């Protein structure tokens, strides 16, 4: 290894550092020479549970690595970001009891720490040390918004994939203020995944001049766990105008206006007995993956809810039949149920799979020949 040219070493490191940061941190602890050789690579893929202290610590680390005297700055190409819940009032819509400092949140490993040492905590381990700041430094404070804004500005020019998870459990904010920290586009982002929010509109700084935020985004995956059907796809038609692949997971009944909005996007009606729209509202789309959240036992005991779920199943079946005529490949995934926190684990695994060249959340399309 001592005889290999730096360019070859960095190519090897680039291929290896695709696991969210663990390998990059490990390389930095090998030796001073390896740390220097891997400096511009080891932040290539970052998975960050952004508690206030952790976010500030990562920004301090990144700022040190960007010192002009060190040469080329490191670039974050892939970001998996978990934004902790704020301390504002909320209610659960998928069960559970809210505590300001959930013990189970330690099940999610973070690989960039104040000392840059990778670690994984056990699910039952309590949050300690700097994480205790969570209870007194909420993630909707002005200081946190400024730190998140700095992170967005740093990663925006080079980012290729982005995963954002809002909170740790299925819950709805009631009075907590929004977290606005984005005021610049992400020109190279190709894939976006969201859990816990339908779009990133709440993250946009008010009155900011925002052109399309994701002009190059091609693949969008939105996990609608706990989201009501009162929104639509207008935001994404504006901010991801070239998207070709769209996956919707955890669609639930009653579907409100969201499923009709999705149908108009591909130029069909949302039910087979309705007339189609005059034109497609999202003409760039050419592939859909649709997943319905399976009803719970409590849902099955309510006749009105069962009827709504049957209507949603009929609508998704219609998507599968009608989309090909519009030049859109549609795959309807069999219903299954997972808790919010399990979706968080699944999305990170799929993100890592995509970084290593796998199908990730798009494997059903690959099996269907897309």
Q: Any overview of this molecule?
A:
It is built from eleven helices and ten strands. It is α/β, with parallel strands linked by helices and 370 residues long. It has an eight-stranded parallel β-sheet with strand order 1-2-4-6-7-8-9-10, with helices on both faces. Strands 3-5 form a two-stranded antiparallel sheet. Helix 4 runs parallel beside helix 5. The longest helix has 20 residues, at 303-322. Mean pLDDT is 78; it is low at 88-136.
User: For the report, how would you describe the main beta sheet?
Assistant: 8 strands, parallel
* Uncertain residue segments: 88-136
Overall shape: it is globular
Percentage of residues in helical conformation: 25-40%
Rg from alpha-carbon coordinates = 21 Å
> What would the average pLDDT be, to the nearest integer?
78
**Total helical segments:** 11
Based on secondary structure, the structural category is alpha/beta
Order of helices and strands: HHHEHEEHEEEEHEHEHHEHH
Strand order of the largest sheet: 1-2-4-6-7-8-9-10
Distance from N terminus to C terminus (CA atoms, Å) equals: 41 Å
């Amino acid at each position: 290894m001592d005889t290999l040219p730096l360019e070859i070493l960095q190519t090897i490191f680039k291929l290896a550092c695709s696991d969210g940061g663990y390998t990059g941190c490990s390389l930095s602890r090998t030796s001073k020479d390896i740390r220097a050789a891997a400096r511009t690579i080891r932040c290539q893929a970052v998975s960050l549970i952004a508690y206030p202290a952790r976010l500030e610590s990562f920004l301090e680390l990144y700022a040190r690595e960007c010192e002009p005297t060190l040469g080329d700055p490191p670039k974050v190409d892939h970001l998996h970001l978990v934004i902790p819940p704020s301390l504002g009032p909320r209610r659960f819509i998928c069960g559970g009891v809210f505590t300001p400092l959930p013990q189970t949140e330690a099940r999610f490993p973070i690989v960039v720490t104040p000392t840059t040492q990778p670690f994984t905590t056990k699910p039952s381990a309590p949050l300690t040390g700097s994480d205790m700041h969570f209870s007194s430094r909420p993630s909707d404070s002005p200081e946190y918004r400024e730190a998140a804004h700095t992170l967005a500005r740093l990663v925006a020019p080079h980012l290729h994939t982005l995963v954002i998870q809002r909170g740790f459990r299925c819950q709805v904010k009631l009075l907590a203020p929004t977290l606005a920290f984005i005021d610049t586009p992400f020109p190279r982002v190709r894939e976006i995944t969201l859990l816990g929010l339908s779009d990133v509109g709440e993250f946009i700084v008010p009155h900011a001049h925002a052109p399309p935020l994701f002009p190059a985004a091609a693949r969008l995956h939105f996990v609608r766990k706990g989201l009501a059907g009162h929104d639509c796809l207008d935001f994404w038609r504006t901010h991801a105008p070239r998207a070709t692949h769209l996956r919707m997971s955890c669609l639930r009944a009653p579907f409100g206006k969201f499923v009709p909005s999705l149908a108009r996007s591909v130029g069909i009606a949302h039910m087979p007995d309705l007339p189609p729209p005059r034109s497609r509202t999202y003409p760039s789309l050419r592939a859909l993956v649709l997943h319905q959240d399976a009803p719970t036992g409590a849902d099955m005991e309510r006749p009105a809810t069962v009827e709504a779920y049957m209507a949603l199943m009929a609508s998704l079946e219609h998507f599968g039949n009608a989309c090909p005529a519009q030049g859109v490949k549609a795959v309807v995934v069999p219903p299954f149920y997972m808790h919010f926190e399990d979706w968080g684990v699944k999305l990170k695994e799929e993100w890592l799979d995509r970084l290593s060249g796998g199908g990730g959340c798009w494997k059903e399309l690959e099996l269907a020949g897309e």
